[in-house]
C-alpha cells in the first residue's frame, strides 16, 4: 500500500549512503548556548517560510522548508524537508528528492492522508526558485502553483540552520577503506525576546541531546556535536577492529565496505509554528551494519511566551490516558488502510493502540508519533496520528498556547 512506502521512500537517499562513501565535509557552529540575534545559517543551508493557495483548495497553507546538504550522497545535492498546514492545524510532511538544477526544488508527499488512492501515484511538488523575491513556482500534483516567500519581520523570532559533518576511515592505512559518517543539522533561534530566545535555545539543545527530563544543564551546539562525534567514531573504530580482515587479504577490504559504511544523522525541522506555539521534529537515523538503519522522529512543542518545552504531562490531564487510546485507534485505521470495524492487528502489531508520549501540538490538535517497530513493521514506516482539537480539548491542561485556553502561561 502506498501509505506504507512513504517512509521507505524518504530513506532511499539515506540508505544509498551506505555504499557511497564520500570525502569529509565539515562546518562550524555557533559556539554559544545563547546565540546572537544575527546568527547566520551554515553554507548550503536555509530555512524559509512560504504561503500558498494549493490547487483545488479554498484555504491557504503555510509551508516551513529546511534545506541542508544531503549528507553523504555522492551527488552533492541539497536536501529538503517541509511541513505544511492550513487553518485546521493538521500538519502534513514533504520529503525532498534530488535535483541537479540548483534552483529546482522537488518534494513529494509523505503523509498517507494525502493518498486519495492508496495504490495511486505519489503526489509531487515540482518547483523552481523565482528571481527577485525568492518565491517558488511550478506544479503541485501536476497543477500550477505559486508559493510566496514570507520575509520575517525585523527583530522577530526565526531560525538559522547550523550544519556539522565529518567522517573517519575504518582502516586508515587502507586506500579503499569504508568510512563512518556523522552529521548534525540544527535550528538555532535568532531574533525575538532575548530572555525567551535564550530559554528556548537551551531547551532545543536539550532536545537535540535526547534528554527525556527537563532541568538538565544544556551544552553548546558545538560541544554537543563534538561529544556525539567522539562517541560515534569511538564505537565505529571498535566495531571495525572486530571485523577487520587479515592484513594480507587486501581484497577483503572492499568486501567489508557495505557493512562498515556506518552513518549517524540528526536533523531538526519545524513541524508547526503559529503565534505562541512552536513544534519541532528531531529526526535521527543510524546505520551500523545489517539490512537497514534505524530511524525515528521525536516531536517537541514549545510555549513561545516562555521558551518552555511542553511534554506529554504538560499537555494532557491525567484522565487523558484512559480516553486517548480509543481516539487513536479510530484515527489510525484510515492511515493504514483499515475500515472502521477492522481489527487493528490486521495491519498492525497491536490489538489496541498504545498511548505514546511522543506527541506535539498544533493549534488545531495533537500529533502522536509511532516510530518503526512500535506498532508496525519497518516497511510500514513511521506512523503519525492526528487528533483534532475538538476531540481532545476536554483532556488538555489549562494555560496552553492554544485558542481558547484559559490561565496564563506557567513560568519556568
From TrEMBL:
Superkingdom classification of source: Bacteria
Pfam families: DUF3298, PdaC
Keyword line: Signal
DUF3298 domain span: 313-389
Database matches in InterPro entries: DUF3298, PdaC, PdaC/RsiV-like_sf
Signal peptide, first to last residue: 1-21
Domain Deacetylase PdaC intervals: 224-294
UniProt protein name: DUF3298 domain-containing protein
Species annotation: Hymenobacter ginsengisoli
Lineage of origin: Bacteria, Pseudomonadati, Bacteroidota, Cytophagia, Cytophagales
Amino acid at each position: 500500500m502506498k501509505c506504507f512506502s512513504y517512509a521507505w521512500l524518504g530513506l532511499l537517499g539515506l540508505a544509498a549512503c551506505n555504499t557511497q562513501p564520500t570525502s569529509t565535509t565539515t562546518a562550524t557552529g555557533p559556539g554559544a548556548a545563547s546565540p546572537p540575534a544575527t546568527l547566520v545559517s551554515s553554507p548550503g543551508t536555509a530555512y524559509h517560510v512560504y504561503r500558498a493557495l494549493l490547487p483545488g483548495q479554498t484555504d491557504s497553507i503555510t509551508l516551513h522548508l529546511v534545506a541542508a546538504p544531503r549528507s553523504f550522497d555522492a551527488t552533492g545535492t541539497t536536501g529538503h524537508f517541509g511541513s505544511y498546514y492550513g487553518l485546521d492545524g493538521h500538519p502534513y510532511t514533504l520529503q525532498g528528492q534530488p535535483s541537479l538544477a540548483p534552483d529546482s526544488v522537488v518534494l513529494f508527499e509523505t503523509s498517507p492522508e494525502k493518498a486519495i488512492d492508496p495504490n495511486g501515484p505519489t503526489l509531487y511538488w515540482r518547483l523552481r526558485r523565482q528571481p527577485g523575491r525568492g518565491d517558488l513556482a511550478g506544479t503541485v500534483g501536476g497543477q500550477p502553483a505559486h508559493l510566496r516567500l514570507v520575509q520575517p519581520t525585523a527583530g522577530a523570532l526565526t531560525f538559522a540552520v547550523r550544519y556539522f559533518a565529518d567522517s573517519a576511515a575504518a582502516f586508515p592505512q587502507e586506500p579503499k577503506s569504508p568510512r563512518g559518517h556523522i552529521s548534525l543539522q540544527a535550528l538555532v533561534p535568532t531574533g525575538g525576546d532575548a530572555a525567551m530566545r535564550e530559554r528556548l535555545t537551551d531547551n532545543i539543545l536539550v532536545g537535540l541531546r535526547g534528554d527525556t527530563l527537563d532541568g538538565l544543564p544544556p551544552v553548546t551546539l558545538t560541544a554537543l556535536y563534538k561529544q556525539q562525534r567522539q562517541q560515534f567514531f569511538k564505537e565505529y573504530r571498535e566495531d571495525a577492529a572486530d571485523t577487520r580482515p587479515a592484513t594480507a587479504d587486501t581484497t577483503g577490504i572492499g568486501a567489508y565496505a557495505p557493512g562498515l559504511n556506518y552513518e549517524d544523522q540528526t536533523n531538526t525541522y519545524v513541524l508547526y509554528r503559529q503565534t505562541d506555539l512552536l513544534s519541532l521534529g528531531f529526526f535521527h537515523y543510524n546505520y551500523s551494519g545489517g539490512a537497514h538503519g534505524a530511524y525515528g522522529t521525536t516531536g517537541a512543542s514549545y510555549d513561545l511566551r516562555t521558551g518552555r518545552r511542553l511534554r506529554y504531562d504538560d499537555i494532557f490531564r491525567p484522565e487523558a490516558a484512559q480516553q486517548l487510546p480509543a481516539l487513536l485507534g479510530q484515527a489510525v485505521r484510515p492511515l493504514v488502510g483499515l475500515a472502521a470495524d477492522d481489527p487493528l492487528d490486521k495491519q498492525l502489531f497491536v490489538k489496541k493502540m498504545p498511548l505514546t508520549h511522543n506527541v506535539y501540538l498544533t493549534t488545531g490538535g495533537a500529533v502522536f508519533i509511532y516510530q518503526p517497530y512500535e506498532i508496525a513493521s519497518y516497511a510500514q514506516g513511521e506512523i503519525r496520528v492526528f487528533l483534532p482539537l475538538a476531540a481532545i480539548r476536554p483532556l488538555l491542561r489549562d494555560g496552553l498556547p492554544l485558542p481558547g485556553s484559559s490561565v496564563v502561561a506557567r513560568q519556568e
